[in-house]
Amino acid sequence: MKFKNLSVLFISVFLAFSCSNASNDNYKSLLWKISGNGLENPSYLFGTHHLTPISFLDSIPGIFEIFEQTEQTIGELDLNNLGEMQMRLLSESFLPEHVTYDSLLNDEDQQLLDSALRNTLGDGIDVFGQLKPAMLQNLISIAQFQKKYPSPSNNVGLDEYFQQEADKRFRPVIGLETVEDQIYVLLNSQTLERQTELLMCAVKHPDLTAKLIEELQVAYYNQDLDKIQKLYEGDLPDDPCPSTQEEKDIIGKNRNEKWLEKLPRLMEQKSSFIAVGCAHLPGKYGLIEGLRRLGYRVEPVK
Question: pTM of the full predicted structure?
Answer without folding.
Answer: 0.89
